[in-house]
Write a structure and sequence with these properties.
Blueprint lengths: L14 H9 L17 H19 L3 H7 L8 H5 L3 E8 L9 E8 L2 E6 L6 H8 L4 E4 L2 H13 L7 E3 H7 L6 H8 L10 H12 L3 H35 L7
Parallel strand pairs: 1-4, 4-5
Antiparallel strand pairs: 1-2, 2-3
Keywords: Exonuclease, Hydrolase, Nuclease
Pfam family, one: RNase_H_2
GO molecular function, one term: nucleic acid binding
Length: 253
């Protein structure tokens, strides 16, 4: 689903009205007209106003506008439209307390390339600002509660970008648990499926004691976490798309 298929940002348009529009042939903004059956004149005017405002925002790739206007549980709809602007990222840390523990590695996957920053080497506030510069859409797993505040607290950076947290998108289609268990459930493979977040802490401690191979393994693990987010985003948004559009089938005109 692309944002052009969506009418749900409009005040007074919920899932039922949106489905009615789709069922009556209004599959995207270009299909809308005032005389559509089942939509009152006030709602029709609001839809037209929204479309007129949203078109230039879409042309400008203004993801922030759509993140503001779409309900939070519907922001997954931005992914298909803005996937080329997506910035997938994941961090590893020495613990769960962003006021006490340290970030050890940060991997960012953009435009098919993955960059990994390492504590004590190139992981700095300036480097983070560079890798996140002009990010159209952040994509994480549990990043809203963990990765984003951890980086903002640790490096005093501002990551106030539109954000798709796949943990919540996964839950909405019945995929619960952590990233690794969800990957197994949907068939996303790993080179080292035996490693976990606890191992990431252990590997960092080994590296601090002089084991350079441990850092190589940690970086590989962190990069795989990050790159797998792209595959998971494709999977879960496809399922959400099928659920939303599939509800049109068999409904009356």
């Amino acid at each position: 689903m692309r944002v052009e298929n969506s009418f749900i940002p409009v005040r007074g348009v919920g899932e039922t009205t949106e489905r009615r529009l789709w069922n009556n042939g209004v599959r995207e903004w270009d299909d809308f007209h005032r005389e559509i059956k089942g939509v009152g004149p006030t709602t029709a005017e609001r839809i037209e106003t929204f479309i007129d405002e949203a078109r230039p925002r879409l042309d400008a790739r203004d993801t922030a506008y759509f993140a503001r206007t779409f309900p939070s549980n519907e922001r997954w709809r931005l992914y298909e439209t803005f996937r080329d602007d997506a910035c997938f990222f994941d961090i590893e840390t020495t613990g769960l307390d962003h006021n006490r523990d340290e970030v050890t590695t940060v991997s960012v996957h953009r435009d098919g390339e993955t960059t990994t920053l390492v504590n004590g080497d190139d992981l700095t506030a300036d480097a983070l600002a560079d890798v996140f510069a002009d990010a159209g859409l952040l994509v994480t797993f549990n990043g809203a509660r963990f990765d984003v505040p951890f980086l903002e607290t640790s490096f005093d950076v501002d990551l106030d970008y539109p954000h798709l947290d796949l943990m919540y998108a996964c839950r909405s289609v019945g995929l619960a648990g952590g990233l690794k268990s969800i990957e197994r459930e949907v068939g996303i493979g790993r080179d080292r499926p035996d490693l976990s977040g606890r191992d990431a802490v252990r590997l960092w401690r080994q590296y601090e004691r002089g084991d350079s191979a441990a850092l190589d393994t940690l970086v590989s693990y962190n990069r795989e976490d990050t790159e797998n987010l792209s595959t998971l985003a494709d999977h879960v948004t496809t399922r959400l798309d099928e659920r939303a559009f599939g509800s049109r089938e068999g409904e009356g005109e």
